[in-house]
Amino acid sequence: MSKKLVNAIADMKEEEALNIAKKMVEDGSDPTAIVDAAREAMDIVGQRYEKGEYFLPELMLAGEMMAQITEMIKPELAKMPEVKRFGKVLIGTVEGDIHDIGKNIVTFMLDVNGFEVLDLGVDVPPQKFVETIKKFKPQVIALSGFLTLAFDAMKETVGAIEAAGLRDDVQIMVGGGQVNEEISKYAGADAYGKDAMAGVTLAKKWTGAK
Amino acid sequence: MRIIGEKINGTRQRVAQAIEERDSAFIQDLAAKQAEAGVAWLDVNAGTRQDKEPDDLIWLVETIQSTVDVPLCLDSANPQALVAAIQVVEQTPMINSISGEPQRLEGILPLVAEHGCPTIALAMDDAGIPETCEERMEVVRKLMETARAHGVPDDDMYIDPLAMTLATNTDSALITLDTMHAIRQEYPETHLIMGLSNISFGLPARSYINRAFLILALAAGLDSAILDPLDRELRAALVTARLILGQDRHCLGYTRAYRAGLFNGMESNS
Hints:
Chain A is an alpha/beta fold. Chain A has helices spanning 2-10, 14-26, 31-50, 56-72, 74-77, 101-112, 126-136, 150-163, 181-187, 196-207, and strands spanning 88-93, 116-119, 140-144, 171-175, 191-192. Chain A has two domains: 2-77, Methionine synthase domain (Methyltransferase, Methionine Synthase (B12-binding Domains), Chain A, domain 1, Orthogonal Bundle), CATH 1.10.1240.10; 88-207, Rossmann fold (3-Layer(aba) Sandwich), CATH 3.40.50. In chain A, strands 2-1-3-4-5 form a five-stranded parallel sheet, sandwiched between helices. In chain B, α8 links the parallel β7 and β8. Chain B is globular, with a radius of gyration of 18 Å.
């Protein structure tokens, strides 16, 4: 049953995947098995994306299926033990910018590569990052932005993290739209990631993950 | 139909390198090839080296002007860089671009009015790119009102309705085309312009998507575009679509393109 779920998600058969997941829940399957199957499928989707077999629409659909399945098993999920993760990444689109496509791809790829990712969404004020760093304690911060005004917002966010005395606890990467090495330096970040895989590579390097 | 050649853009890695190394030959070659392809303007974007942008842009302008006499389209969101570059251009440049973002609107519009520049105006503001046609029209109305208040003639306004990728919203091209129809209705004297390639972001075989979209946009009233003028397939599609849309008197644009060899080597040219 769970092998079928893996294949249905990985092959973009949304209706079939949701039906299988629903049936598994009704039959009283271990929610861990459902989550593991979904995660295995996401891993396959991520690999197919990297190989150029899948594209942005497939990532979006996979994310939607994952969200719906998670919703289905939510009551059971709370009882589950934590999955071992490489490290924590806090991600968000900086204040004043509402673009999220690139950020969502990075979140997806970090997640399938074994990171615990907390996504603050779009138009995130610097103070929101600071407060969440205190609670969530991530090793890595990923700031996304598409508009040129995001450059200054990135700089302000890094500045706010510094002012809160948290700068030495985290590594910061920036990316999206017109962002490049120069902007990374301008914002006071540690590195620029040109695409989702570059982000994963940075996060692995910074957390010592293999 | 007016084409703005997109190739001299510092966000492309090879061009950024040429700018940094002051490689005039590379830039002049790009300029000459696009001029030969018959562009109305050459887009000039110095990239995002923030503090260096004014100097880089001036260098690009002077380097290009010494080879070709096509008017330039100064591409920057930075008012300082534009002010600097306007001092050295030989012909009235197009400005790329203003938008509803206050910094770009208030910083750049006075410059446009003073120098009588044709200007690209993006249908977005500091809240980003609006999702719906109606919201984009609100931004366009605000832009037009401000431009008119500065005395910019409608005929100098090149409005870009903006296209988001189909990969995340399969209605996004329809929203763009609807917005174009609405702009044509309300502001018939303005021009409609577009950068084509965003529509296909995140998808494979992008040139097919870009080409089909260009043709549909032409039917919706597009009369200028920022594109790669060296892309023969795209130019062939453009020439053909204009013929079909009744924009090519006596079919001369089409037959001249044929005689000039535009269709040579393509599969179905018999």
